[in-house]
Amino acid sequence: MPPAPSAPRVGAAWPMSGPAARDELASWTTAELSEVPLPPAPPMATLPPPGQTKLIDGRGVYVRRHDGPVGPTPVWFVHGLGGSSTNWTRLAAVLADRTVGFSVDLPGSGRSDPPPRGRYSLLGDADLVAAAIRRVSGAGPVHLVGNSLGGYVATLLAARHPDLVASLTLISPAVPDLRLTTDRGGDPRLALLLLPGTAGVAGRRLGGIDAATRARGTGRLCFGDPDLIDDASYEAAAADLDWRTGLPWASLATLGPLRSMMGRYLRPGRWSFGSAARSLTCPVLIVWGTRDRLVDVRLSRRTVGEFRDATLLVLPGVGHVAQMEDPIATARAILALWDRTDHTGVPHVRPAPRVEPSSS
Question: Is the pTM of this model over 0.85?
Fold first, then answer.
């Protein structure tokens, strides 16, 4: 009898690196958790709700609507590098009894158009999402939730458009990590992508890995416990990756935002993460997993300290995408933030600063 087929081997094609698990740092938690009854999180393979392409500033921006009661402050979700609006299906479903939600595909990701001339920019992304919020939700403030690179974009949005943001939740935000340590999150070789001519090489290397292997490698990299991901979820992720790989801007859609983010790290200024964070007056929740291989959980306390009003939830055993891996605990902290925000009289509005052109 032939042996049963096994899952694709990902070790050689997708090497793992990053800091060790630090489950003991869950003791750093300062955030409150809501005790309200919550619906169960849907299975990992649950299909996301359909969306629509909105014409925003002359560009197609894909937005999914997660049903919920209309009236309370809506919530908007911003995904991370290489992700899409589908990353929020589980968390949005858990929050569905509270308010309506919207998840957006950033430029070049998911089903949104790439930026003109391929000029990816975190500032441009922040301004485009702000324009989408005004177009879809109106002028009122929203609760804003961002993961990884989307956390950086959400922070810039809140700083540049404070009238739009009632509260800010950042899940493993892609904060700068310039420490002299050998076990930082991510891969320091990514800095080589700042060099001219490297995009084609990186794109060909990624293109040489089949979609199924890439999907499983991404699961191992982003989840603290990859065994939570079932075969149906991997098959759906592989099909989506296979479709995205066929887009003419697929490689640049990953490398362009990465270069923009790393450029912000190396050129601190008014729109650096720290400067943007220190300008905010809205309440902030930071969520981090103790097994995050991409952004070290040891950065979480320093990140909280960048904001005037922030609390921290550190989740033991969780990786880089807490909204997918532990949507219940994440939702409880978010709801506690929203309750505190509502009791203090949202929105926290201050005069909008002068917005500089989003050229980088």
Answer: yes
